[in-house]
Known about the structure:
The complex is a heterodimer.
Chain A: H1 24-27, H2 42-60, H3 86-92, H4 95-107, H5 111-114, H6 132-135, H7 138-147, E1 149-150, E2 153-155, E3 158-160, E4 163-164, H8 172-186, H9 199-209, H10 217-221
Chain B: H1 9-52, H2 65-97, H3 104-126, H4 143-154, H5 157-162, H6 171-195, H7 200-235, H8 242-255, H9 272-283, H10 285-299, H11 310-331, H12 335-341, H13 346-375, H14 382-415, H15 421-427, H16 429-457, H17 478-482
Amino acid sequence: MSDHDHDQNLDYEAGTASVVDMHDAVKREKVLQPSGHEPMGVTALVLCAMALIGGGIVFGHNNGFSSSIYVQDFYTPEPPPSEDGAAAADENVAWIDKWMKDGKKVYNNCIACHQPDGLGAPGQFPPLVGSEWVDGGTERLGAIMLNGIAGPFTVAGQSYNQAMPAWNGLSDEKIAQVVTYIRREFGTLPEGQDGVVTTEMIEAARELYGGKPTWDEGGLLAIPEDAMLPGAKVDLQTGEPIQ
Amino acid sequence: MSDNSQVTAEDVQERAGIDRSVRFPVMFFFTSAAVWLFVATLFGFLSALKLAVPALWADCQFLGYGRLFPAHMTALVYGWAMQAGIGVMLWLVARLTRVEMTKAKAVIVAGHVWNFAVGLAVFAIWIGKGRSIPWLDFPGWMWMLFALSYLMMVVWVIPMFRVRRTGDVYISEYYVIGAAVWFPWIFITANVLINRGAAPVMAAGAAGWFVTNLIYFWFAPIALAVAYYIVPKIAGRPIFSYPLAKLGFWTLAILAGWTGFQRFMGGPFPAWMPALSGAATLFILIAVVATCTNLLMTLKGRQKLWEYSPSLRFTMFGMLMFAIYGVLAGMSSFFSVGKVLQFSHFLVGLDTLAVYGFFSMTIFGAMYFIVPRVTGCEWVSGGMIRWHFWFSAYGILTLVGVMLVGGLAQGGNMADLDQRFAVSVGNSQGYVIGRICAWFLIGISNLWFVYQMGLMFLGKGRKSEGPTLIHGEPGKSAEAAAGLNPENA
């Protein structure tokens, strides 16, 4: 592509050219002067500060330098809509389905010991499936939730020596949801019971047992086996109390 | 650097000697780059056309978008931008170190190898051997050809810098030497990772990293070196602030390598990688602020020269585009904005803004300054330079405008899960037509440029005294045309 012979304009030889023979572009050129050392203006400082703040905002949402976190803050993808459209589906969902769904979310706190399937770990953590404490009255279950329990105690014929912490930091509604969830999901309910525990019932439990120390097995057994927390039954479709 | 701002006969003679020593490599790179620019523009126009009318030439595999666009990008980046940049780099280093180039023949031989590599790369992509890796589309083994010929062309600037005959290191020297040594690092790293068995996800990350690094580690430093040289030369003023210029340099040097992964936000990377890259892209705005402040303050009171001097006009427009590029890149680093824009036309517009709007316009400025000095004749027509400028400016602004708005529309449609994907394609059709118009304007502007460059190469330039100005009688100085007094302060 290049042609080395087209230098007829450069008719001076190295070292012999006089300034007069130089072409104008070289002659008219100005000298590069030593650079100044002026201070930075306020506007420039403010703009630089804005760049730093912007970068800090982006960097601040990175959840730390963890190699296992893949989702940035503000970047949770929206769930895909259901086939009927999300809004329409929302109206048709029964109250109990939503209550159970929320209960399942709260149950995430429990899965480390009781496991997602409610079977626990044999010899280590007691199961919820087949447990007389779950299948029996709600008063004992509410009491355990609020104050926790320290072993040894017996569940489904096996002895455990573990401590369960108190969950009284959760709201009444969340405790009601998770107790409903474990009773309906893992329990074997007596004839005629729907297993639902309402917020009102947990409020009553807090009045009875709130602030008491951690239970041992003897203290819990003092509560009648089939004692139910007081409160109105609710319509499973609407969630309204039935008089 | 002389303390005296008066031009002495020794200065003139020395400058003429230096220009003479680099004239063959510089003109070789400039003219072959101009030819590649024309090829790239043609591919760019055709690929934009294919995007708007996909059925056009549908039966011809050589005219599919999947081949035209990578061929366009390869010709634009390696054929035009890098070759023009290397030409500018050699001339700047020779001028700034005041050392004559002694290895001109070796550089030209290596330059032929580079041109052969670019031609082979474009041809391979065109016949369907491309790899669909942005900016690294050529077949895998070819990277060594590029790396070796780059080293053969650029290695000479290191000994020239070592034996420099100046006391202080001028700010442009920082930038140009930085660019010379950074390119091998990013190019070899990216290619080794991609070709030698990095996990596929990591290879995608390396490709994105390479694109932004080529922009911040090579295009930006060379363009800034040009701006820091041209602006004081034309204005006859010293640089406003040396520390501020060094702040810009070190900001780039430290932060540029961290950018790139923000292109994959929400992707299968640990969340800190896109976050860190996004933060680095925003921090680099410090370099943008430092550069723009410095150049504007240097030019203060003499902005009117902008209307007359082609070099100054192109360079300052390029720096304006640098600022716009920095802001847009920073803006799309925020998750809330980036998640809408990341898979849209916006990214194509952003990359083109970097290569054409910011780098190429600055390099045009450098060429309008350098070519009369190394060839000994003046540009033919100020009118043609004017057309070149305005068609380029309108072209690139159109492209960036439609790609930004179109990207927002397209990305918004894609993020809306209730809509079919076809809706996002259909709604972006209007913007794609804008892209054709932009490439048409850029194509016209480059006709003027390639024609003038050809005349200069053949020694058919104007022989009379005095520079070719954008407006006004040829032969007058830019200062006289602008009605300013020569200033020696």
